[in-house]
Each structure stands twice: as C-alpha cells, then as structure tokens.
Amino acid sequence: MGKDGVGKSSLIGRAFKIRSLRFYEACQRQDGIDTELIFQENDKVVLHNSRNPVPGTNNNVEAFLARRRSMPDLKDRVHAVWLCLAIPRANEPLFDEDTKKFIERRRQILGDIPLVIVFTKLDLVVGGIEYESFGNGEDPEAWYLEERLRNELEKSCIQPLQRLAGTDIPNVAISVQEGYESTIEQLLEVTAGKVDKYVANEAAMAALMAQRASISLKLSNSISAGKKRHWRGLASGSKFLGYTLKDCLDVIHTEIVSCWNFEDPNRYLVSDQFKTLMLNVVANTDTRDFPDSDVEDVGFGLAVASAIIGIRGTAVRVVLPITANIMLVGWAHDLYQYSGTASSQCIAYIVDLTAIMQILFLLMPQGHMTIPTIKLAITAYSMAGINEVHSRIRDHYENPHNVLTLGGRDHTLEMIVQLIKETSIKSEELASLRAALGDLGKLQRDDPRYGWDDGDD
Question: InterPro entries, from UniProt (predicted)?
Fold first, then answer.
C-alpha cells in the first residue's frame, strides 16, 4: 500500500525480481484491489496493489481485507501488508490524514494480518547528510554519518510513528539502490517473522521462497524445509525404503530447487540433464580432476569467485559429461538400503546441490536461467569446494565409531547443516563478489549454439 511514486514497483522489483516496469504497467491496468497480480518471471508471489489507503471515504481497501481475512484456505488470505511511506524531507509531515486513520484503525481493519511500515528512499536521506557534511568542509568518519542517520530517522520517522501508534508496529527503512541490499533483506526477514508468528509457518516459508533478494534467507529457508521434510529420513531410511536411491534424490532435488525459486522458464534446473550432472558430481567422491582449494582460508565465496575468474581468464571451455557413467552412478538405481554408503551419497547430493544453488544466485542477479550458467556453477564448485566436502563425508563414514552410531538422526542433520554453512556465500559478500566477476550479462542470454552437450567459452 502507498501513494503513487513512493517506490512500490521498485521495491517489488528488488525483492522479488519482478521487472519494475511490468509491475507498474500491471497496476495501471488492474480493475481494482481484487485483481491478482501474478508474473511469469516469479509466480511464487501473488500481489494486490492499493495506491492509497483511504478509510472513511473509500472502503475498497477495508472491504478487500475483510473478505480475505474470512477466506477458509490459507492460500486465499492476505499474509502481510507493506505500507510504504517516503521518508520526509525538509520538515515535511510523515503521514497524510488518510494514512493516519488507517494506522489508528489497523487492528479493526487487519486483525492478525501483519502490517510492516516501509520507509522508502533511504538513499536520498543518506545523500543529503553526506552532502551537508562534506559541503561544510568536514571529513566525517563513518560512525558519525551513521549516528546522524539514526538521529534523522528517529526524528522524522520513528517518533511520529510511535506518537501515533505506539511501539508495536514493525518498521524498516529501505532503499532499492545498489549498496542498500541489507535493508531489503531486513524487510524480508521482519515480514517473514511476523507472518510465521501471526499467520502460518507455511506462509512464512512461501514468502522466503518467493523473495529473490537475500541469499542468506534463501539458504536458511532451504535448510528449514529440508529438516521438515526428508532430511530426517536419511538416518533411519524409513521414508525411502522400497524406492530407488535415484527416486529419493529426485524428491530432494525438486524440493531444494523449489526453495531457491530461480526464473527458469525452460525448467533446466529440474531437467534430466541437470540431474545427471548432479549424479556425476556426487559419484566422484574419491578423485577429482581439480586441485584442492583453501576454502577455509579464503572463504567459500571468494574461492568460488576466484575459480570463476580463473575459468574466464584462461578461456577454459566448460564441458561436462551429460551421459551418466554407469560404473559411477549405478548405485543410484539400486533400492535404498539403510547403510553408510547410501547416507553419504544423500548427504553429498544435498550439500553439493545447495552449494551450486548459491553459486547460481551469485551468477544470476537478474534474468532467467541458462545452460552455460549452470555448467559454469558446477565447474566453479568442483574447483572451489567439492574436495573438502566429499573428503569430510568420506572420512566420517570410514570412522568405525560413526558407523556404529549411524542411526543418530540428529547427528546426520547436524553434519548436513554444518557442511552447508561452511560452503555458504554471505549476503554481505554478494556485491563485492559480483563486482570482481564483472559483466555477467552474457550468462543471462540463451544462445542456441550452446546446449547441454556443447562447450561454452
């Protein structure tokens, strides 16, 4: 919710990777607030747009929210409301009268639907503070500028909100400009937390799946979903008995890919070709053609970026085996049996695929998935982290004590989570890593010359 020009379409574009222009055009064409706005590039989120909250003079907003609150199915309800307000400049008021009325009556209108106040255009405030400071001939340190910003937000946003509504409304100041990615991540995290508390955990997980701004939230949501569904079955094998290991891995594969929610219109990430590549990656647990990397020394993100730069710098052609090596992956077609071997292969698949999803997030700040991007991500992981992951898993299951305690499902979960976190790319690293990688635009364009079985320069 919010006035025209406050930055709603830019926020949606940044948070969900829906093209801002398409969102703006859809809002102009909508018949009313009941219109469901769903976009092909990210169909995991359903949006309803209200240009202005106008209780007392136009009850469309209130009537819509009342209808949605009474819907029997969770999927038809409103899960959260973002009320967007531009941070005031030059002693402008924060609220108009209609917005004040809406906030004052929020409990009657919304019930348990979480409301988050979004103060937009933070970058303009930061720019004004810096201009004023440097314009006065000062050379302020970072802490001084941060303190001035906190004071400005407290005076112009927080205090007026608290005078009107108390302290129980969550609020986040954001900017959609480069360098402010952490503010969008904070907004998404606060929103998901409120949805989890007041609506349903399933809706909160869906919100984290729909967002495409935070790699850290993607990773934590992927871990949470895995724990809830099939990772606990790895230790006992109870959920997998009677199925082939490949069947089990297919289920795990689909769930992990779904959590990351890439724009993948050609469904490359759930294709048989990609699954075959993943089986080949997991099968090579004993020897690799790539040298060991010092992942712990430099961090996984930097190791990945260095590998990608090395590949591009030496014009290596990314050629990966699409046809499964029967000698290597024959195990995948056997019936699942409770054993250290089966558990180690499942663990390797989960950790390897999650690491590759993170690298794809690094490589795809926008645009849709392409085959060269996938092959580059697999190659980078093979160079940057796979040796350490697979050797840790192998050493664990070669330890007689661990084999004797194989049924300890908590230990299995602990190992998966630990390996995933050790091969993680941090949100705060993304901007610098992408800057080091340079132009990624070519990766985001499909080229008919390059397919699964072809080399990609």
Answer: P-loop_NTPase
